[in-house]
């Protein structure tokens, strides 16, 4: 069945000084899929996500979400550096509830929404704690919940686990997958870790060196929930090998 794309990028051009990162770039992203962006260092992965999220301006081109601009929809963004992302003077609970204040949601409703979200996650945090009392992983979990509290139409994750230790990273990936399976929110992640990119994704957006083009956009047809066994799944490894081939070809160019 034909499904209208959720995000349409048309004629996108972006330069930094003399460097052209995107030149008349086009892309369609399907609704409700988890999409990993992967490509050589400095090819423009974060730039693409920031352009789509409206955090940096396009030089020219148009980015629409079912025909609407980013200002007309709700979205969540999780930064790599969780240390600077949370308000240090607010408890975890208040950090999570914070975006709802802008939507003029009552205190009672805000508390109910946080409660509902907390139940979806495996939260082993005292939500009365302040950021300095929490581990890095706990802080990043709070950042993710804060991004989700607005029930975003689209969620942006810029290397969200790269500052965490390995054990925490594995647990966060699985939490992220669980939330995705429950909410079906269109999700875009930039990851430098090919295992992670493929493990989480419904599709992997493989970019070339700048000015970036889409080299391939393969679907990852591996059943969810994925777990440690997935790493031995032949289809998972086939896609991973394919992504690695493309990546190495691009890096050598
Ligand atoms: N604000 C900026 N001003 C000038 N140049 C920038 C700016 N942001 C990014 N760049 C440059 O644009 C290019 C693409 O950057 P971007 O961070 O999007 O790449 P990336 O693929 O995410 O990189 P990495 O793999 O290193 O994380 C890089 O050469 C970077 O130095």
Automatic annotation (TrEMBL):
SUPFAM superfamilies: P-loop containing nucleoside triphosphate hydrolases (SSF52540). Keywords: ATP-binding, Nucleotide-binding, Transport. Pfam families: ABC_tran (PF00005). Coiled coil: none annotated. The keyword ATP-binding applies. SMART domains: AAA. Gene3D superfamilies: P-loop containing nucleotide triphosphate hydrolases. Residues 7-234 form the ABC transporter domain. The keyword Transport applies. One of its GO terms (molecular function) is ATP binding. PANTHER family: BICARBONATE TRANSPORT ATP-BINDING PROTEIN CMPC, SPERMIDINE/PUTRESCINE IMPORT ATP-BINDING PROTEIN POTA. This is ABC transporter-like protein. It comes from Celeribacter indicus. The lineage of its organism: Bacteria, Pseudomonadati, Pseudomonadota, Alphaproteobacteria, Rhodobacterales.
């Amino acid at each position: 069945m034909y499904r209208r794309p959720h995000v349409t990028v048309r004629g996108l051009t972006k330069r930094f000084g003399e460097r052209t990162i995107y030149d008349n770039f086009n892309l369609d992203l399907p609704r409700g899929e988890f999409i990993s962006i992967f490509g050589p260092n400095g090819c423009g992965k974060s730039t693409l996500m920031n352009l789509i999220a409206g955090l940096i301006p396009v030089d020219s081109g148009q980015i629409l979400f079912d025909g609407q601009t980013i200002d007309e929809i709700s979205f969540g963004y999780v930064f790599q550096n969780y240390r600077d992302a949370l308000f240090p003077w607010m408890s975890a609970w208040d950090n999570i509830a914070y975006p709802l204040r802008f939507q003029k949601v009552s205190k009672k409703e805000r508390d109910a929404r946080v409660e509902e979200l907390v139940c979806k996650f495996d939260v082993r945090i005292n939500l009365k704690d302040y950021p300095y009392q929490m581990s890095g992983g706990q802080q990043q979990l709070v950042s993710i919940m804060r991004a989700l509290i607005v029930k975003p139409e689209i969620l942006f994750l810029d290397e969200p686990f790269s500052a965490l230790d390995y054990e925490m990273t594995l647990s966060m990936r699985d939490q992220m997958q669980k939330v995705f399976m429950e909410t079906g929110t269109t999700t875009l992640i930039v990851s430098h870790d090919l295992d992670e990119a493929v493990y989480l994704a419904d599709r992997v957006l493989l970019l070339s060196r700048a000015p970036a083009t889409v080299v391939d956009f393969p679907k990852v047809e591996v059943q969810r929930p994925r777990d440690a066994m997935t790493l031995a799944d032949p289809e998972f490894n086939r896609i991973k090998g394919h992504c690695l081939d493309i990546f190495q070809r691009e890096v050598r160019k």
